[in-house]
Amino acid sequence: MRVKTAFAFLFGAVLGAAQTNSVDVQDIIKKAVAATEANWKEAPKYGFIERDVESRKDSPKTVKSYQVLMIEGSPYNKLIAVNDRPLSKAEEQAEQQKLQATTWNRQHEGPHERARRINAYRKERDHDHTMMQEMAAAFNFKLTGETKLDGHDVYEFVATPKPGYVPPNRDAKVLTGMKGKLWIDKATYQWVKVEAEVLRPVNFYGFLAKVGPGTRFELEQEPITGSLWLPKHFASRVYATALGFINENSLDDETYRDYRPLRNQEPGAGSREPIAASLHR
Q1: Are 46 and 230 in contact (CB under 8 A)?
Q2: How many CB atoms lie within 10 A of CB 260?
């Protein structure tokens, strides 16, 4: 899983502050920010099972399931099923050999190679966290009501682009053309669901590449243990062009289950969290 993610963390961490119908939005946001930051810090301590459904233009749909592990400071995906079919005994043995080889290589790599590998993982994670923080400047948020979702009583917010926002880097440009909705659990201040949609074309690399209208993202999460909530589902439909031609028309649907604490975690290492990686597709 590449979260893929800090899509969910992006919308969940930052909202505007105001008083709406006697509800203290500022207090809701303060608590939501604290809950989201706590999830962000704890997520690397958990492994999980991930099922990926991918559909690319002119390519057949693929369905693969992985056991997501942490090996010597960075993630590893062990293939466990294809098209919802468990691997044969021979295939399972081959994957186990790959896992053993990767483990041995990482345990015996030189200090510079090890540092490059772990730093690359941490850099991606830090990038996602920076994008999350940038949301505060990029959007105006409004409380639109209270409802029930997936058995949770929630606050419902809408997010719209903030006029005059200037993205500080290339990656943040996509925020200028998006709108979204967010549902926050009233009891725990965790987000339950996030939806986002690209409203207008957003250019990257000058005019060489563009993300088009109709690109959509959806994320859902659930309680795992105690106060910790983690993603259970992420879906995206992406329309993109390069040099004026469509080169990426993709559908992705990912589910995450069986979260379990990872043992022997290294300080600051952790496993890959499901949302953040999706944004790098």
Answers
A1: yes
A2: 12
Contact 129, 6 (CB under 8 A): yes
> 236 vs 128, 134, 194, 253, CA distance in Å?
17, 21, 12, 7
- Cα 245 to chain center, whole Å? 27
Helix, strand, coil share (%) of the chain residues, nearest 5: 30, 45, 25
**Distance (Å, whole) CA 184 – CA 147:** 10
Helix axes 25-42, 111-138, angle to 10 degrees: 170
Return the pLDDT at 276: 35
Question: In angstroms, rounded to a whole number, what is the distance separating the alpha carbons of residues 141 and 138?
Answer: 10
Can you give the pLDDT at residue 270? 42
The confidence band for 3, taking pLDDT boundaries of 50, 70 and 90, is: very low
HSE toward the beta carbon, residue 48, CA cutoff 13 A: 25
For residue 56, the model assigns a pLDDT of 79
Tell me the backbone φ, ψ of residue 123, rounded to 5 degrees. Answer: -65, -40
Give the burial class of 131: count Cβ atoms within 10 A of its Cβ; 0-12 exposed, 13-18 middle, 19 or more buried: buried
Tokens of 256: 């995450």
- Among the listed residues 201, 197, 208, the one whose alpha carbon sits nearest the alpha carbon of residue 244: 208
Query: What three-state secondary structure class fits 125?
Result: helix
pTM score of the predicted model: 0.79
Q: Around 2, how many Cα atoms within 13 Å sit in the side-chain half-sphere?
A: 7
- Give the whole-angstrom CA distance, residue 69 versus residue 92: 16
* Residue reference for tokens 């008083």: 19
